[in-house]
Amino acid sequence: MFQTGLLKDRAIAITGGGTGLGRAMALRLADLGAGVLLVGRRQGPLEETAAEIRKRGGRAAWATADVRDFAAVEQAFDLGGTELGSLDSLINNAAGNFLARTENLSPNAFAAVVGIVLQGSFHCTLALGRRWISERRPGHVLNILTTYAASGSPYVVPSASAKAGVLALTRSLSVEWARYRIRVNAIAPGPFPTEGAWSRLVPSAVAEQAWLQQHPMRRFGRQEELADLAAFLLSDHAQYINGECVTIDGGMSACGSGGFSHLLGAPDEFWESLESQRRRSS
Ligand code: HXC
Ligand code: NAP
Q: Domains of the chain (ranges plus CATH)?
């Protein structure tokens, strides 16, 4: 099914499309014929990814926006529509996350992550959903969650709370908007090495090894594996899939180790060193 032209004539907005998994999905979807709009806060990664897509013969546009700002999101989608034609799909991929003991979090730390993940996904979905409904056009929303959206996880409480909210958004809207021919689905990835996630969530090679040891396949995900799943879910081959959350983690959450419980045994010194590293770098 992954033939050139699978996503011909499609126009897909991807938040956080300049780095990591967003970038991998953008490259794959563009290779399959879609025009992609990359949205994020920093111009550099967006520009670089768009240039790479164009170099490979694909169609790409980019717009800077903070997904916490609804007006900025609307502007970004206006620009994408002008450059690529009407957007027909959205991947809510932008996220914020970090490892922390919850009792040490400030209210603003919680708000920053929930603002990006939950409110940001809502803003983007509302902005495009309204357009599709008023223009009577079908649409597709794909939300990138994590396996701990369903289970919860220690040490990433803002992220777990926000992703659980996006899972509820996925299921709720898939029902409410089915009558408008808008499908809403999600992917729940386990660990996939990216600079953004690893720099914030994997503090050392020892922690990485501990995580890997809990994995039934003894390996993390490959970005192209997730990109192919996204391409399938957005394609016409998946027209009857709606309200679904597909886990892609090599069986890790099935063996009860989707989150950061491996850190429960970490001594206070581990957390103190993490906190002092952060104080030094801020
Ligand atoms: C505790 C922290 C913190 C940390 C920031 N804060 N980092 N608190 N521990 N490590 C607090 C700050 O002190 C501040 O609170 C508040 O959070 C907002 O911080 P800012 O830096 O002003 O916010 P902002 O610039 O908006 O940055 C957002 C961010 C940052 C979430 C903090 O990390 C970010 O931009 N992340 C984007 C990319 C990312 O996180 N990628 C990883 C995705 S991986 P005060 O009270 O001081 O004002 C993922 C799932 C992986 O999501 C799952 C694997 C299985
Ligand atoms: P990443 O590279 O750090 O991706 C996060 C992206 O979100 C960045 O491009 C960032 O760009 C963008 N972003 C952050 N805050 C934003 C904001 N306020 N407005 C607009 N864009 C914003 O990390 P990743 O690993 O690829 O993560 C991608 C997605 O996969 C996330 O939803 C994450 O939760 C999920 N996930 C990842 C893993 C993993 O192991 N990697 C596992 C499970 C789930 P700017 O900073 O330029 O804005």
A: 11-281 (3.40.50.720)
